[in-house]
């Protein structure tokens, strides 16, 4: 049995919202940018074991029904890439926990559009992508089509991380915040390892709203 240690911090989460709302496609660009910012979908935080900055991306927080690829590209261009040193490599920690097609998965064409809009210098500086909690479907898809869909050698930079304990082989554990639901999912995998292979159903939790007072981040996944 692992012992979880650390402390939680407070941060806004996704609020319960009607993802099929007729207003979801009519948000202004500025509103979309503010939404991405509030949800903390992208955050530069911590360093890996090589001393590289980390861009943390939480897939569950992606409001796929509410924002366009244009808004995501502009957010990255204006608020993320300028904070990455143009001359230094960086790593990405992508957390795939609880991502599902109906709520927070934007689709392959949208992902490819976002990726292709990233400046060449940023792509070159990306040293590694640590893909946390990959499902069997995402692994099979990337193994089959990843080399063809994403340019710049992205597929070769992927490192699958099936448990949080293995992430700390690459990332300094005390410098990055991990949402509580990720730790809970990790615990479930310990007792239901068959979930790793997509055989047992893993029911996604309900999406929660912006400005929720609940604490969603935890530092307990550092054992």
CATH topology of one domain: Phosphatidylinositol Transfer Protein Sec14p
User: What CATH first level of one domain would be assigned?
Assistant: Alpha Beta
* Major beta sheet, strand line-up: 1-2-3-4-5
**How much of the sequence is in beta strands?**
5-15%
Determine the CATH superfamily of one domain. Answer: CRAL-TRIO lipid binding domain
H and E order = HEEHEHHEHEHEHE
| Quantity of strands, as a count | 7
Low-confidence stretches: 1-24, 197-219
Helical element count? 7
Query: Main sheet?
Result: 5 strands, mixed
Pfam families: CRAL_TRIO_2
Organism: Cannabis sativa (Hemp)
InterPro entries: CRAL-TRIO_dom (IPR001251), CRAL-TRIO_dom_sf (IPR036865)
Protein name: CRAL-TRIO domain-containing protein
